[in-house]
Amino acid sequence: ETGVTQSPTHLIKTRGQQVTLRCSSQSGHNTVSWYQQALGQGPQFIFQYYREEENGRGNFPPRFSGLQFPNYSSELNVNALELDDSALYLCASSAPPKGEETQYFGPGTRLLVL
Amino acid sequence: GENVEQHPSTLSVQEGDSAVIKCTYSDSASNYFPWYKQELGKRPQLIIDIRSNVGEKKDQRIAVTLNKTAKHFSLHITETQPEDSAVYFCAADPTTLTGNQFYFGTGTSLTVIP
After folding, report:
1. pLDDT of residue B100
2. If you measure CA to CA, which chain B residue comes closest to A48?
3. What per-residue confidence (pLDDT) applies to A2?
4. Residues 6+ apart with CB under 8 A from B36
5. Is residue B18 scored above 90 in pLDDT?
């Protein structure tokens, strides 16, 4: 098992609400990437944080936002929840420069929007 | 942005036979191609990866090949075992500095029949 942890493990929200998901990166990793995995689909890249700044974003609307803290842990915030936001949210940490080490996924947070 | 296609979506093989999963990518800048195995309810686990300066890589029963000109890469599993049954995802990473901004295929559900 990797050192990446996520909280909470499960979450139920209703449409229109806001949610915050948390990720603690593996020791020594300063980069955190977030992915959304809908049921039966591959993970989709949401965004990446490197040295506390957003460093790349996939095709997700602005209501998906994030933060990275000085200890490299990260938050994913989703505003105005929609039913289609129901998914497994994965975070992964890594340590650049690229080529030195690949990234390791956390166990995920399963979000259900009713 | 990068677009990764994966085939087949489902694959059934007899124990001991070989399994091949194929992926294509669109962005010629992609330079890193990992393969992940995901068992039901669990996080994706890296099983093998290949970088763009290498044409083939092997790790025991698993091998990956890359054709940069044709923009396709494949996973080969030999002497399949029931414990190989899972969903397999290919991915491509077009970044340079931080890496680890993966664009995943839609997955292949592999069933190994004892």
Report:
1. 80
2. B101
3. 63
4. B44, B45, B46, B47, B88, B89, B91, B104
5. yes
pLDDT higher than threshold 90 for residue B41: no
Question: Would an 8 Å CB–CB cutoff place A23 in contact with chain B?
Answer: no
* Residues A82 and A113 sit within 8 Å (Cβ to Cβ): yes
Q: Which residue of A has its CA nearest to B42?
A: A107
Using CB atoms, pick whichever of A40, A98, A107 lies closest to residue B43: A107
Q: Spell A45-73 as b/e; 16+ CB within 10 A means b.
A: bbbbbbeeeebbbbeeeeebbbebeeebb
How close does chain A come to B78, measured CA to CA in Å?
24
Distance CA B78, CA B17 (A): 6
**What is the Cα–Cα distance from A46 to A6, expressed in whole angstroms?**
16
Residue A80 clears pLDDT 90, i.e. is over it: yes
Query: In this model, does residue B101 exceed pLDDT 60?
Result: yes
Residues of A in contact with B43 (CB under 8 A): 90, 105-108
- Say whether pLDDT at A1 is over 60: no
For residue B41, give how far its alpha carbon lies from the nearest alpha carbon of chain A (Å).
9
CA pair distance B90, A70, nearest whole angstrom: 32
Q: pLDDT (tens digit, 9 = 90+) per residue, A42-65?
A: 999 999 998 899 998 999 999 999
- How are the residues of chain B apportioned to helix, strand and coil, as percentages rounded to the nearest 5? 5, 55, 45
Write the residue in A31, A41, A107 that is nearest to B100 by C-beta. Answer: A31
Binary contact (A43, B6; C-beta < 8 A): no
Higher pLDDT: B98 or B54? It is B54
